[in-house]
Protein 1
Amino acid sequence: MSTPFYVSPEQLMKDRADFARKGISRGRSVVAVQFADGILFASENPSAALHKVSEIYDRIAFAAVGRYNEFENLRIAGVRLADMRGYAYDRRDVTGRGLANAYAQTLGTIFSSGGEKPYEVEIFVGEIGDDAADDQLYRLTYDGQVADEHGYAVMGGAADVVAGYLREHYMPGLDLSAALRLAVDALGHSEAGTNGGSVDRVIEVSDLEVAVLDRTRSQPRKFLRLVPARLEPLLGERSLPPAEAPEEQAPTEAGQDSPLAPPTGGGDEPPVAPPG
């Protein structure tokens, strides 16, 4: 009888975590920014059909990065849970904290289970209150950990670089236009390659997916998706500052990627949707 193959629990968990992080990093970042009237979610997403940001309930929104089929299952489960709880009890009993806890239990169970692969997703659950002090923003990772974020948060893609930009430029109490410009500028800020610098790019309005939870809306449902016609006047004229424009690079050898080339897909890697 052959000896069964053994992997230590620590190594198994590390391998599963590395697998999930690799899948999440292939997607493009999602930014959440708290502003004076609510919470804004923004991402670079050329697809008009596959959304990263969606509504869960009256004052609650959901955003995700990673595998589309996996976070779409989580979104649908959250909508069903919210509807059932609001119908059976009261609409006020549906809270972002309760949904975040439910998502954490689901993701934690899947991650620790040996029978299936971990979900390659990270998600935001945002809820607005009657004033800015009551707003809540939760970030959930692939293993079920929950973080209570304040001010701003980033997940997926070059999250560290985008978060660094937000850390330097974010100020509490921004209006919608300023928060939108900050989020879009942060998404366009990325590493320039091996030289240790950074390069900024202007993201086309048609490639942006933006939604807000706006407490000033008169309807009970506070979720609003901002279409390109609404984004253009809010963003105004955009151009790269001369001091921050990328410098010309020496030609690269054949077959070698330029450090300033835009990110491309993963080739034979598993698909991550929305396109990233």
Protein 2
Amino acid sequence: MDYIKQKTDQKLYDPQIHLKKLSQRIKLPKCGKPIEISDRNPTKYTGRITIGVKCNAPSWQIYVSATIEGKLPVVITTQGILKQAVIKPEDVKRILVPYKKASSNSLISTETAIGMRAKKAIGPNEILSIRDLQPPYLVFKKQTVTIVSKIGGIEVKTKGTALQDGVERQQIEVENNSSKKTVKGIVIAPNTVYVP
């Protein structure tokens, strides 16, 4: 029980641990040394687990089943979010739910969601997962951007107009406002495109 409590500590909220009672027929001599515990799934801390209990003097080994229930933190939507909308702090909150409702892809921090874009329309009170989100655009179509180039060792900056939306490190087309030429550049910062 102590081992399982330690295993779930900091990972599970309100843990409830149920050890399966051993059969009355099993008679084991008292262990003369501290027992050794082996865990078949050291990273699993919810649901049904099996723990090996071993004694070296006298020598015996037994397996104990346990069921662990509890709650995990998830991020849910506080209201409906439109497809491609940027997620704002008031759109999300962190709550605790029974572990069975939280998938391995569920977000656990609101900071991860804020500033990202919704890949699809998301209803209110839905658990957010990594798959629901896309990186935010740093450059928007038809908006003015700074075009950065390097000529020799000199950095040259000029104004341009983005011809498409772009996320960080994405290659997009930009029109140079002075030459009216279309060039390809890489989004490196908000409203900033690097043309190699």
